[in-house]
Amino acid sequence: MRLLVTRPEEDSASLADALVALGHEVVMAPLLTIRFLDDAFLPGDRWQALLFTSANGVRALARRKEAGRLLPLPVFAVGPASADAARAAGFATVEAAGGDVTSLAAYVSGAIKPESGPLLHVAGTTLAGDLAGMLGAQGFDVKRVVLYEAVPAPVLPEAARQEIEEGLLDGVLLYSPRTARTFASLVLEAGLANRTEGLVAYCLSSNVAKALRDLPGLTVKIAREPDQAALLALLPA
Fold it and tell me: Within a 10 A sphere around the Cβ of 113, how many other Cβ atoms?
């Protein structure tokens, strides 16, 4: 299959390698650019643990000089990719939830106690789900610090435009609702909505799929679990 990879550059290389190993052709067209907010205030406290809902949150924190003193803290990551990034950054105690914010909140509330101290959630400007609210309902004190932003592409990347216009693609992989909304919006703005008929959108979750409602010509497939292994399992051998 010929597949469009829409992830930010920081996340796309390993995905492309996995797809090539499975025998697929890859077209790279990042729809979000990660901008690290290196001047953002990072509060100091006696944190009980760190929470990461993306690998980019890990990367953003690892860039900071304050990261060294936080490495001994336990880390709770939203899924395997974030957990791998945390281990690569030097965190020794890392546990991964099931791939979405709901599973992370459940994992944290079952593993530690609110009275043991506050939690630091390293995040971007746009959130998927209310992690602080879910944990707050369980008595946890969660402080969110924004260390990066994901900036949408202003126009459809040329590689994607050409592939869609010429009908060369078999599918597109979409990992987040925001990426899916950006894809749909840019395809419409490029006047290519009628060229998506028969194109398969492989979506990490139902929320990602819902963001594609403006492109009814797409065939949408949703991973059984919100993780990359389940997403790649949707692809034909």
Answer: 11
pLDDT in the model for residue 236: 92
Is 81 in contact with 13 (CB distance < 8 Å)? no
Which amino acid, residue 67? A
Q: What is the pLDDT of residue 129?
A: 80
Q: Which amino acid is at 5?
A: V
Cβ-in-10-Å burial (0-12, 13-18, 19+) of 46 comes to exposed
CA distance linking residue 42 with residue 130, whole number of Å: 20
Give the pLDDT of residue 1. Answer: 96
* Residue in this structure with the two tokens 């630091």, named with its chain if needed: 120
- Any long-range contacts for 164-168 (C-beta under 8 Å, 24+ apart)? 164/190, 164/192, 164/195, 164/196, 164/199, 165/192, 165/195, 167/195, 168/2
**What angle, 0 to 180 degrees and rounded to 10, lies between the N-to-C axes of helices 55-62 and 9-21?**
130
* Average pLDDT per 10 consecutive residues for the chain, totaling 237 residues: 94 92 97 95 92 96 94 95 95 93 96 97 88 96 96 96 96 95 97 94 94 94 92 93
| Helix, strand and coil percent figures for the chain, each rounded to 5 | 40, 20, 40
Structural domains in the chain, sorted by start:
2-31+153-232 (3.40.50.10090), 46-147 (3.40.50.10090)
